[in-house]
Amino acid sequence: MSKAKPIDILIASLEQIEPLDQQDRDLLAGLDLRFRRFSANNEIVRSRTSPGESCFIVAGFAARAQYLADGGRQLDQIHVIGDFVDLHSLHLRQMDHSVIAIGPCDVAFIRHDELVSTMAHSPRLTWLLWQLTVLDGAVARTWMTCLGRRRAEAALAHLICELLTRLRRLGAAPSNRFHIPATQTDLADMLGVSTVHVNRSLAELRARRLLTWSRHEVHVLDFERLALIADFDNSYLEPGNPMPKYFQQFVTS
Questions:
Q1: Could you tell me the pTM of the whole model?
Q2: Which residue ranges does the record assign to the HTH crp-type domain (predicted)?
Q3: What is the 3-state secondary structure (H, E, C) of the chain?
């Protein structure tokens, strides 16, 4: 498990959007968290279930998964440390997809009734949690474009650019290096291609001296050129608008 306190990880994630005051921090610190470690490919959240809690990542990576009748699967939207993976389950009768661990993954669960109570006491936290679901939507739309319109090499480059951008903001990619325990099968299921295409795409990016990828260790050597190949624009990862005045009046009243 990460050395940082789990609630501090969540606070750091929220404060990428807007700073919290002490009251908000105290509300979050008072949450009753349940922890669990998942092995690679284990389901953190299962499709067609109705969870009574939501969870965020304390360490590791996770991805959304949908399964096909022939046994195939599509993975999308890799989640990193601090991400809520199923905040939207608050509003769903049942999950329409699963969330699986990409390598070992530590997760903290919060009961829905506690989340609702916390939001009732803090419009600011309500606004920030809403912003997280907006970010989820932006990432999902971008992944859809990658799957539908980008070649395998460009889609892989885009995936790496997205991960590096997000992890750098968390201080988790020193010198443009990061660890991700994704297998080539995982990558193929993320990109919607065969493992042969993944191998070829990785080989091409290596040959251009854009990155190294060995034993799950990624080192991006030339981010600008990699982003050019990917047609990567990080604006979809930028924080949304600050809390508007009509929310602020509830906070200060």
A1: 0.93
A2: 150-224
A3: CCCCCHHHHHHHHHCCCCCCCHHHHHHHHCCCCEEEEECCCCEEECCCCCCCEEEEEEEEEEEEEEECCCCCEEEEEEECCCCECCHHHHHCCCCCCEEEEEEEEEEEEEEHHHHHHHHHHCHHHHHHHHHHHHHHHHHHHHHHHHHHHCCHHHHHHHHHHHHHHHHHHCCCCHHHEEECCCCHHHHHHHHCCCHHHHHHHHHHHHHCCCEEEECCEEEECCHHHHHHHHCCCHHHHCCCCCCCHHHHHHHHC
Q: Kindly state whether residues 12 and 121 are assigned to the same domain.
A: yes
Tens of pLDDT, residues 140-187: 999 999 999 999 999 999 999 999 999 999 999 999 999 999 999 999
Domain containing 121 equals: 6-146
